[in-house]
Write a structure and sequence with these properties.
The complex is a heterodimer of chains A (112) and B (112). Chain A is mainly β and 112 residues long. Chain A is built from no helices and eleven strands. In chain A, strand 9 and strand 10 form a beta hairpin. With 112 residues, chain B is mainly beta. In chain B, 0% of the residues lie in helices and 55% in strands. Chain B starts with a strand and ends with a strand. In chain B, 34% of the residues are buried. Classes of the chains: A mainly beta (112), B mainly beta (112).
């Protein structure tokens, strides 16, 4: 595997479910990011991790919970989501925070 | 609140023609990125512009940055069908990577 990979690629979940999105980067980078891409809206930066520490940024509902166990892996834990959370969730990584970002293929999430 | 505005939002152009996409942003930054996204795919990095007056070219695309005007342009020369995609600019206003803002995107269709 090369670059940034994400699993699953598609996910359908009910509002009461708990699921997790996984991202893995094979680039030796030290920063990882989660973005949300909704229809007709700009990409929104959700979370940033630099050297496995979370960098606070825009507020995100607590039903989204990130986890970065090491510099190669990033998770987004989901629980009690709302239909408006349906979107494409993109993971990215960069050499260090603030450097050029490389994106994964995304997970298409549908909340029913 | 930082605003990153692209225009036009939709662009339909004939093969062989030239056109420019504009990206305006509302606060000081000297780090601007251009990305391409094909339908159903992730984002591909095109250009990284890190200083006032920076100009980069790759094939039929050329990007420039004017930090004083808070303006970046993506110029398309002699368009071909393969350039059909959505193009995003993104502005980084924090070296920490936690303030990375995307424009709304420009959907480009090149017509034979």
């Amino acid at each position: 595997e090369t670059g940034v990979t994400q699993t699953p690629r598609h996910l359908v979940m009910g509002m009461t479910n708990k699921k997790s999105l996984k991202c893995e980067q094979h680039l030796g980078h030290n920063a990882m990011y989660w973005y949300k891409q909704s229809a007709k809206k700009p990409l929104e930066l959700m979370f940033v991790y630099s050297l496995e520490e979370r960098v606070e940024n825009n507020s995100v509902p607590s039903r989204f919970s990130p986890e970065c166990p090491n510099s190669s892996h990033l998770f987004l834990h989901l629980h009690t989501l709302q239909p408006e959370d349906s979107a494409l969730y993109l993971c990215a990584s960069s050499q260090a925070a603030g450097y050029e970002q490389y994106f994964g293929p995304g997970t298409r999430l549908t909340v029913t | 609140e930082l605003k990153v505005e692209q225009n036009p939002l939709f662009l339909s152009m004939q093969e062989g023609k030239n056109y420019t996409i504009y990206c305006n942003y509302s606060t000081t930054s000297d780090r601007l990125y251009w990305y391409r996204q094909d339908p159903g795919k992730s984002l591909e990095s095109l250009f990284v512009l890190l200083s006032n007056g920076a100009v980069k070219q790759e094939g039929r695309l050329m990007a420039s940055l004017d930090t004083k005007a808070r303006l970046s342009t993506l110029h398309i020369t002699a368009a071909v069908h393969d350039l059909s995609a959505t193009y995003f600019c993104a502005v980084d206003i924090s070296r920490a990577g936690n303030q990375f803002y995307f424009g709304t995107g420009t959907s480009l269709t090149v017509i034979p």
